[in-house]
Write a structure and sequence with these properties.
Layout (H helix, E strand, L loop, with lengths): L1 E7 L5 E7 L9 E2 L1 E6 L1 H4 L8 H14 L3 E7 L15 H4 L13 H11 L3 E7 L2 E4 L14 H9 L1 E2 L2 E2 L15 E3 L5 H17 L4 E5 L12 H7 L7 H25 L4 E6 L18 H4 L4 H7 L4 E4 L16 H13 L5 E2 L2 E3 L5 H13 L4 E5 L1 H7 L2 H6 L6 E2 L11
Parallel strand pairs: 3-17, 4-5, 4-16, 5-6, 6-11, 11-12, 12-13, 13-14, 15-16
Antiparallel strand pairs: 1-2, 7-10, 8-9
Length: 418
């Protein structure tokens, strides 16, 4: 706005000069974590080589819709979806053999980072933690280089019959194998390998964070493997002491990774996808449907928040399959209940509710985004890319809940621990 200032010059004349005021400052941008999970199944196809054009598509659609973080999977079953010196190339990258690089050569993670930075998107490298291989019978190629961790685990701990001692066994001595074969969280050897993988990613790639998935036991009554028995000092049991010990093994893995990553770069995010129900409260009355992270998977994700050795958790509050209309257990009311439960115990850390993308109407997604905002969370994440693509929801996000652009919250540093 311009005003006229009267300046009187004695005996001569009157001059009117412009008086310029400062314009109003621009509004502060919205601060909200808007994550999009991009699993290995979203950008690769079995028996076909991965294509950089698919990365271009993902980055374009995510940026146009208003996302600001890509949670991009780089590790599935101890195989690599990037150029790793520690684990072999995944079959789904080359489309051919385990350990075979793509031809012509390209590095999907490096390429994604380059494209994402040009569009203002953060990249958080997303790793499956304890899965070592898929299924019960098909084993990775022993000749693949670098040597697959399955064989390193076997050579380090040995095996009993056809069971690897370093894998998770159930209470009747069977090695678990559905949907994965899982390394035991009691394995320090496994932790050391994970730390090496995390350190390599953080030091060689310009990523903005590390995102952990499958960082839990495979289910109740696990793990009764020889490695766990040796470290616990007794056979596994249904006693609370053993369950608490199991939770401590998972907590220890999270703490080690957090400490290692933050020591390299305090500004990097360390987050984890977690079971959607921590502990069911009696007043909820959900009963047998409510598998609990704390009791059934020995995943005490709230302890990570309270202990300050995670920046954010993303409770996966969505069904495995979607019905149209939605009549699953995971209703909007239950979503709101669980979001409020986690947010109440955030201890100053970030809670990023996970929202499914397979709903037959976009209203289901938008309602859950609204619930997350009303609960005061730091953002949310959508699982996963293909659901948005198949249902053509990118434009709805852009015109609806993402009409206002948002910046990612600043990650926490060890000095801000509670």
């Amino acid at each position: 706005m311009t005003k006229l200032l009267l300046l009187v010059v004695p005996l001569l004349f009157v001059v009117y000069l412009p008086f310029v005021t400062q314009p109003d400052p621009p509004p502060e941008p919205m601060v909200e974590f808007r994550g999009l999970w991009v699993s290995r199944f979203d950008w690769t196809t079995f028996a076909q080589p991965a294509n950089p054009a698919k990365i271009d598509e993902i980055v374009h659609n995510a940026a146009e819709a208003g996302f600001n973080v890509l949670l991009f999977q780089v590790r599935g079953t101890a195989d690599a979806y990037y150029d790793s010196p520690l684990e072999p190339w995944a079959v789904r990258v080359s489309g051919q053999n385990l350990g075979q690089p793509p031809s012509p050569y390209w590095d999907p993670l490096a390429y994604l980072i380059q494209q994402s930075q040009a569009r203002g998107l953060q990249v958080h490298a997303y790793l499956n933690v304890y899965p070592v291989w898929t299924g019960c019978t098909v084993l990775p190629d022993p000749a693949a280089q670098p040597q697959h961790f399955y064989y390193r685990l076997r050579d380090h701990y040995g095996q009993t019959g056809n069971k690897l001692n370093g894998m998770q066994w159930n209470a009747i001595g069977q090695q678990l194998c559905t949907p994965y074969q899982y390394a035991t969280p009691a394995s320090v050897f496994m932790d050391d390998h994970l730390l090496a993988v995390a350190t390599d990613l953080v030091t060689r790639y310009d990523i903005d964070g590390l995102h952990l998935d499958h960082i839990r036991y495979a289910g109740p009554d696990t793990s009764c493997d020889p490695v766990s028995a040796a470290r616990f000092g007794a056979a596994c049991s249904n006693q609370p002491s053993y369950a608490n010990w199991q939770r401590a093994q998972v907590n220890g893995t999270v703490d080690k990774i957090y400490t290692a990553v933050k020591s390299l770069d305090p500004d990097l995010w360390v987050s984890a996808a977690v079971w959607p129900i921590h502990i069911e409260r009696p007043e909820w009355g959900w009963g047998q449907w409510a598998r609990q992270g704390y009791h059934d998977y020995y995943q005490d994700s709230k302890a990570w928040l309270a202990g300050g050795y995670i920046d954010a958790i993303a409770p996966m509050i969505y069904p495995a399959t979607f019905n149209c209309p939605d009549n699953s257990f995971w209703s909007q009311d239950k979503f709101a209940t669980l979001v409020a439960d986690f947010e109440a115990d955030s201890h100053g850390r970030f809670v990023i509710p996970g929202i499914g993308t397979g709903y037959c109407t976009f209203d289901e997604i938008e309602a859950r985004i609204t619930i997350s905002r009303q609960a005061g969370t730091s953002g949310h994440a959508l699982f996963a890319y293909n659901g948005l693509l198949v249902n053509n929801y990118f434009e709805a996000l852009k015109l609806g809940p993402y009409a206002e652009t948002a910046v990612v919250p600043q990650p926490l540093t060890p000095s801000t621990n509670n």
